[in-house]
């Protein structure tokens, strides 16, 4: 009997340890920067060389930067290796997502995928690599994966060597985005005939670790602070949203406020989360469609399906160029695919299924996450009937001056309505994203929200 009790006790301790020890061992973390890239991708290329070895990625000065700060295309001389169309799609379907295949069915005459040579451009500052390595051995998941513990010590990439699906999702949400910044971005939701109105936002992003008046203790449960003001069209201008994004949203839900310019009032905005409507998006996206996915992961059970080689949007500098106008991008049904660039990359595949006691308009969603940057580059969204409903494509670029992954544009296609939303375009902004902003908490309070919205 004493032996049995000892065995039960040992088992209990083992189970307890496994529930709290999400961090990897120092020996496993040592792979970062050796057999793995510093952020956790496979350093080696694939067997046939179509995915090359990672050798450090793009560095500052990789291409000319214009007078307004817009980055040039370091791969401008590249030509497509081939183009996938409805006529030849069956040859490549094993490397395409269900959403991409559905786009060929929905738009057989116009949707295409131009495939370019694979360039492993991903790079980040050494301090970010050091932070990822620290995260690997210190960060733990809590509340069934819905929060992070000890993450404030590193701030980025909590699980560079992930063991389950929710850890991959966290890497996307907590990836490096550069220092505090201000940018002007455009959104459009074209009708089926291609007509659209541009909605322009000015947005400020502040990170607690880069704000001197936010202590380590005070910022421990915060990922970022976001203030977003509509600046055009005139009928919407002056409306402002403020979000304090928390890490453990079970313990402390996302805090959000909205300032309505017409009423001149600041109100709490709990709808700015989950499947609440995206701002000024004509019902074409949800709040958690922003940045391809954002917010608490608690409404889904996340399954790690594994890694696959797939043709995904990558190095989309042509689409990002200030020489391209919004009218060049926005076409009936989908963006102009001649401006897009796809490459063969390894991606983590993660599937989220709504928990039985939760609700969301997307009953299931599947993410395809770039191994080198942890950015979601493709996303399939299914309705309650199990039907593929919306297809997301994140046209990723590396801001090589900052060493930060970002998007030239994010497109979300509604297969049923025949419409789509595009967010994050900066082509016609007067200047590029301004990094290094000296924000304080005073810039992210409800009072600041009111001041920003005064016209």
From TrEMBL:
Q: Look up keyword Signal and say if it applies.
A: yes
CDD domains linked to this entry: LolA_like
**Pfam families reported in the protein's UniProt record:** DUF1329
Keywords assigned by UniProt, alphabetized: Signal
Residues in the signal sequence:
1-22
InterPro entries for this protein: DUF1329 (IPR010752)
State what protein this is by name. Answer: DUF1329 domain-containing protein
Per the UniProt record, the source organism is Pseudomonas schmalbachii
């Amino acid at each position: 009997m004493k032996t049995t009790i000892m065995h039960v006790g040992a088992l209990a301790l083992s189970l307890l340890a496994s529930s709290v020890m999400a961090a990897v061992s120092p020996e496993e973390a040592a792979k970062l920067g050796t057999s793995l890239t510093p952020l956790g991708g496979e350093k080696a290329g694939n067997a046939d060389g179509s995915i090359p070895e990672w050798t450090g990625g793009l560095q500052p000065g990789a291409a000319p930067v214009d007078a307004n700060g817009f980055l040039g295309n370091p791969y401008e001389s590249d030509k497509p290796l081939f183009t996938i169309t409805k006529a030849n799609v069956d040859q490549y379907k094993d490397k395409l997502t269900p959403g991409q295949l559905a786009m060929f069915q929905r738009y057989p005459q116009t949707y295409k995928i131009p495939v370019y040579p694979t360039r492993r451009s991903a790079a980040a500052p050494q301090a970010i690599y050091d932070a990822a390595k620290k995260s690997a051995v210190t960060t733990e998941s809590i509340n069934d994966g819905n929060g992070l513990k000890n993450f404030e010590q590193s701030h980025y990439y909590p699980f560079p060597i992930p063991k389950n699906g929710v850890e991959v999702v966290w890497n996307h949400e907590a990836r490096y985005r550069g220092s505090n910044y201000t940018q002007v971005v455009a959104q459009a939701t074209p009708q089926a005939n291609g007509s659209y109105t541009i909605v322009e936002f000015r947005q400020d992003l502040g990170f607690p670790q880069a704000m001197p008046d936010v202590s380590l203790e005070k910022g421990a449960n915060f990922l970022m602070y976001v203030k977003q003001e509509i600046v055009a069209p005139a009928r919407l201008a002056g409306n402002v949203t403020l979000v304090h994004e928390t890490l453990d949203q079970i313990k402390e839900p996302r805090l959000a406020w909205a300032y309505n310019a017409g009423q001149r009032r600041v109100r709490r905005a709990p709808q700015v989360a989950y499947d609440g409507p995206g701002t000024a998006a004509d019902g074409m996206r949800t709040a958690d469609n922003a940045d391809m996915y954002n917010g608490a992961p608690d409404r889904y059970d996340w399954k790690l399906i594994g890694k696959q080689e797939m043709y995904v949007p990558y190095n989309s500098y042509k689409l990002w160029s200030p020489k391209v106008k919004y009218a060049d991008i926005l076409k009936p049904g989908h963006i102009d695919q001649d401006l897009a660039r796809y490459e063969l990359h390894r991606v983590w595949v993660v599937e989220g299924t709504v928990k039985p006691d939760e609700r969301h308009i997307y009953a299931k969603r599947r993410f395809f996450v770039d191994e080198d940057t942890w950015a979601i580059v493709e996303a399939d969204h299914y309705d309650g009937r199990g039907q593929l409903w919306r297809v997301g494509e994140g046209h990723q670029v590396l801001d090589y001056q900052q060493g930060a992954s970002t998007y030239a544009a994010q497109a979300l296609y509604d297969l049923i309505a025949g419409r789509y939303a595009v967010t994050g375009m900066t082509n016609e902004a007067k200047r590029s994203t301004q990094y290094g902003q000296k924000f304080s908490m005073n810039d992210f309070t409800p009072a600041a929200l009111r001041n920003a919205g005064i016209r």
